[in-house]
Amino acid sequence: MTTTSETTTPDRAWIADITMTELERNPYQAYERLRREAPLAFVPVLGSYVASTADICREIATSPDFEAVITPAGGRTFGHPAIIGVNGDIHSDLRGMVEPQLQPVEVDRWVDDLVRPIARRYIEAFEADGHADIVTQFAEPVSVRSLGDLLGLQDVSSDKLRQWFGQLSRSFTNAAMTEDGEFANPDGFVEGDVARAEIQAAVDPLIDKWIEEPAETAISHWLHDGMPPGKTRDRQYIYPTIYVYLLGAMQEPGHGIASTLVGLFSEPEQMEEVVDDPTLIPRAVSEGMRWTSPIWSATARISKVPVTIAGVDLPANTPVILSYGSANHDTGVYDAPTRYDIKRPPLPHLAFGAGNHACAGIYYANHVMRIALEELLEAIPNLERNTSTDVEFWGWGFRGPTSLPVTWEV
Ligand code: HEM
After folding, report:
1. pLDDT for the residue 2
2. What is the CATH number of domain 78-172+184-295+337-401?
3. How many C-beta atoms lie closer than 10 Å to residue 93's C-beta?
4. What would the mean pLDDT of 267-274 be, rounded to a whole number?
5. What's the pLDDT band for 9 if we cut at 50, 70, 90?
6. Distance CA 245, CA 241 (A)
7. Predicted confidence band of residue 279 (pLDDT cuts 50, 70, 90)
8. Does 371 contact ligand 1 (Cβ within 6 A)?
9. How far apart are the C-alpha atoms of 209 and 211, rounded to whole Å?
10. What is the rounded distance in angstroms from the CA atom of residue 327 to the CA atom of residue 232?
11. Which Gene3D superfamilies does the entry link to (predicted)?
12. Which atom of ligand 1 is nearest to the CA of 300?
């Protein structure tokens, strides 16, 4: 484990008091101070350096002196070789495996036909009720059903896909470390293990079938594309990247839809404008991604050589967690960053990461969120937040509202 005198000097002692529970409930307070006082700092509870400003996150994500590494809890959950934690030829192969289905020209061909009927189906199920929980009845189901169908998992229910991403997500972010560099809560990985076993039991027979009879599903393409005739990629080689999909790619468009709506509810005039002019939805989604970044702090890089960043000397082989959700609240870049505001200058944000490991699904994810919100706001333009409870957000690695009760006149 790496240690540093920074955390033991008196003015940095507060960093050693940061807890996982605090970060999961609300990371913004601790990170606001990190950005101000220690934008690249060793955070003991995470057992890692953390980058919290936009400049430092971008510099590290795009620097030739760093390469990707999976966090310890992430590696424990996904195994090797997950696309987010590999480099060189293996990364090129995995990236080349997932990218063809996610190219804009490809996505444009089918995304509307895939997502719109799914969004309509879920809306029809609650439209007459006058109330719904947008997270569990709409945002998450639309997100998982769209990607599930794309992957070839039509027979896995949306509820099961939602359960899997929840289990994998909690396991992946079970990041607390002891002073000895051990996992503080090893039992927290059990639910991830359970999910992985269930996933393999469901996906193995499909892989058996697609090896014999290639199909128009993403996973079938992953097995066959770019391989010599008669050969397929080994299933153990692609499973860790299947888990990356079944966690992040399943969960995050749902987080993004719900967070964007919470943001719009906080600015009723902007909500009205978006309802009246749906062409503003992409702008609303982009601000939602900045305001509450779904992948708040889940990926990392490791220094390949000794390097000095923002005045901090890092030896070779030092992992740094990139907290993009914090970078997107950097007051050096955004005025009043805690406010959701579709009128702010459309500055770039880091919600999809940066460098050669930036999100491969940006184009697809943005369309899923746009189509879902177009359908919802067209079907129910008089949507109101049920203000009898506050909206609770949860998560440090992945972040979004845990529920979003809404009402409307029927
Ligand atoms: C709103 C939804 C989403 C957000 C906010 C998001 C964000 C991110 C972020 C921050 C990363 C890490 C980037 C880095 O380390 O610099 C990432 C990686 C990745 N994302 Fe997404 N993502 C979303 C949805 C999706 C979807 C739907 C897919 C696939 C269909 C996808 C595929 C991937 C892949 C394959 C990687 C790993 C890339 C690599 O390591 O080379 N993402 N995403």
Report:
1. 43
2. 1.10.630.10
3. 15
4. 98
5. low
6. 6
7. very high
8. no
9. 6
10. 40
11. Cytochrome P450
12. 15
Q: Which two tokens stand for residue 219?
A: 């996973």
Name the residue with the closest Cα to ligand 1, atom 19.
359
For 45-54, what is each residue's pLDDT tens digit? 999 999 999 9
pLDDT > 90: what percent of the chain? 97
Predicted pLDDT of residue 5: 46
Both tokens of 56, joined, read 């430092």
Instruction: Average the pLDDT over 299-318 and give the result.
Output: 98
Q: What are the residue boundaries of the structural domains of the chain, listed by start?
A: 78-172+184-295+337-401
Check pocket membership of 393 for ligand 1, CB cut-off 6 A.
Answer: no
For ligand 1, mutation pick of 246, 321, 359 (most atoms within 8 Å of CB): 359
Q: Which of 401, 402, 394, 400 is nearest to 23 (CA)?
A: 394
Determine the distance separating the centroid of ligand 1 and the alpha carbon of 65, expressed in angstroms. Answer: 22
**Structure-token pair, residue 37:** 């006082």
DSSP β-bridge partners for residue 295: 398
Structure tokens of 139?
Answer: 């945002």
